[in-house]
């Protein structure tokens, strides 16, 4: 029997909850999505606190993993936002760890990928863009609007300013859709190849032996997806840094 | 019925986005390799840029997938 590869993204309520009609009547059920988000948050905080609780000079394996992730993000921030961008380190580190853990939790067979829901990724992306806008206006006042005016002759500015404005306001969309689509496409692909194994395995005879081929392919794709899971968390974090850097320094850096 | 058929064709056409993604990813790795062979010393320091370029290229192809899904499911 053929399985629906999209079924894994379905949100199922665990504790059904409905707001009363006077509050809008929204569905606020505790779903498998919420459960996984809670698990991700608990796992990330437990890992980081437990791994660094000993603080030994010669780090254990867990401690060096926690320290490596810390240093990884701080090096990335130093190279992309400069020293005064380090105020935002907790923000970027939290986003990086949350996305990384959600992606890796999604790789566990049978679990649910939090970041394959556009509601989650778009919330994260709009949080980033709102931070960028607020930071820019606090740091530069109305001078932040110079971000939309590159150094160019005036006749080019007529064309360039609208382009800059559009590119700024499509950033939350591209940032969220990039993460969402990567996770969605990867997990759909895994489910489709998993369907091949089931179909061929149930066919009997030589075809059953043939089902080893898509099985081997799944292993390879799984490795690729592990790379993508890390890479997308990294890309999300570094784009956050790049946008913050623009808000902090406008055009005058590097 | 024609609308359903047109949706299928449209979703198929949205896969043309993969042409651009393929060209882009090939370009990223090809340029990296030719640069790395000219100056192997600097190659290791550019792997993060390589992966960033790869991820950004791959994402443009996936925007096509999103368009296909929007066409199919709305």
Q: Give the fraction of residues assigned to helices of chain B.
A: over 70%
CATH architecture of chain B: Up-down Bundle
Query: What class would the helix/strand composition of chain A place it in?
Result: mainly alpha
In the CATH scheme, the class of chain B would be Mainly Alpha
Q: Which topology of chain B does CATH recognise?
A: F1FO ATP Synthase
Residue share in β-strands of chain B = under 5%
Number of E-type strands of chain B? 0
The coarse silhouette of chain B is: rod-shaped
Distance between the termini of chain B: 15 Å
CA-atom Rg of chain A in angstroms = 22 Å
- Overall spatial form of chain A: globular
Query: What is the multimeric organization of the chains shown?
Result: heterodimer
The main β sheet of chain A shows up as: 2 strands, antiparallel
Q: How many helix segments of chain B? A: 3
Q: Radius of gyration of chain B in whole Å, from Cα?
A: 17 Å
The secondary structure category of chain B is mainly alpha
- Low-confidence parts of chain A: none
Proportion of helical residues of chain A: 55-70%
The most extensive interface, with participating residues per chain, is:
A-B, 14 and 12 residues
The helix/strand series of chain A, from N terminus to C terminus, equals EEHHHHHHHH
Low-confidence stretches of chain B: none
Offer a quick outline of the entry.
The complex is a heterodimer of chains A (254) and B (74). Chain A is mostly helical.
Give the arrangement of secondary structure elements.
The complex is a heterodimer of chains A (254) and B (74).
Chain A: E1 13-15, E2 30-31, H1 32-51, H2 61-81, H3 89-107, H4 118-140, H5 154-169, H6 171-201, H7 206-210, H8 212-249
Antiparallel strand pairs in A: 1-2
Chain B: H1 2-14, H2 17-38, H3 47-73
């Amino acid at each position: 029997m053929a399985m629906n590869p999209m079924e894994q993204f379905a949100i199922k309520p665990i504790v059904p909850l409905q707001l009363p009609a006077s509050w809008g009547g929204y569905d606020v059920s505790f779903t498998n999505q919420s459960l996984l988000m809670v698990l991700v948050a608990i796992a990330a905080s437990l890992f980081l606190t437990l791994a660094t609780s000993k603080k030994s000079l010669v780090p254990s394996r867990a401690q060096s993993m926690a320290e490596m992730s810390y240093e990884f993000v701080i090096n990335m921030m130093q190279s992309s936002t400069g020293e005064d961008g380090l105020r935002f380190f907790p923000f970027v580190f939290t986003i990086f760890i949350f996305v990384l853990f959600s992606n890796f939790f999604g790789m566990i067979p049978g679990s649910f990928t939090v970041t394959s829901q556009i509601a989650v990724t778009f919330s994260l992306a709009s949080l980033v863009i709102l931070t960028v806008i607020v930071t820019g206006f606090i740091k530069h006042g109305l001078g932040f609007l110079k971000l939309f005016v590159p150094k160019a002759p005036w006749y080019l500015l007529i064309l360039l300013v609208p382009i800059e404005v559009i590119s700024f306001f499509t950033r939350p969309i591209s940032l969220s859709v990039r993460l969402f689509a990567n996770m969605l496409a990867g997990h759909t692909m895994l489910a489709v190849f998993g369907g091949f194994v089931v179909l061929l395995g149930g066919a009997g005879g030589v075809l059953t032996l043939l089902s080893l081929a898509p099985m081997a392919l799944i292993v390879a794709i799984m490795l690729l997806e592990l790379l993508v899971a890390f890479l997308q968390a990294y890309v999300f974090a570094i784009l956050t840094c790049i946008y913050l850097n623009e808000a902090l320094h406008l055009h005058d850096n590097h | 019925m024609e609308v359903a058929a047109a949706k299928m064709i449209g979703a198929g056409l949205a896969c043309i986005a993969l042409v651009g993604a393929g060209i882009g990813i090939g370009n990223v790795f090809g340029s990296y390799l030719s640069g790395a062979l000219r100056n192997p010393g600097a190659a290791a320091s550019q792997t993060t840029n390589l992966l960033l370029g790869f991820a950004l290229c791959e994402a443009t192809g996936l925007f096509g997938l999103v368009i296909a899904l929007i066409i199919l499911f709305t």
